[in-house]
Design brief:
The chain is an all-beta fold and about 120 residues long. Helix content is about 0%, strand content about 50%. It has no helices and eleven strands. The strands form two sheets. Strands 2, 4, 5, 6, 9, 10 and 11 form a seven-stranded mixed β-sheet that branches. A hairpin with a 4-residue loop joins strand 7 and strand 8.
Length: about 120
Amino acid sequence: QVQLVESGGGLVQAGDSLRLSCAASGRTFSMYIMGWFRQAPGKEREFVARISGNGGSTYYSDSVKGRFTISRDNAKNTVYLQMNSLKPEDTAVYFCAARIAIVSTYSYWGQGTQVTVSS
């Protein structure tokens, strides 16, 4: 029901900022909880942040809390991840994902966008 396309990744230096975008298809975007995940080479996928359907509730992993901000614009069917004070350990492929509230598993995933932070 939902197709997700991430964009905004790139190569930056430590301390720099990036804003990732995730464009979603469908007219029921606001019913989905949206999340950002990341996966570094050779490591497990890691939760980064999530946001409720109306944008009223957000939650972050401890590793990014205070540096990253998740937001959404339901009129544009887009969710964002503002990443500030980037560190080399933030280097990963970042994935956007969507799920409905009554299930625990994210049902839809984008293809990912690469973020590389040099030291």
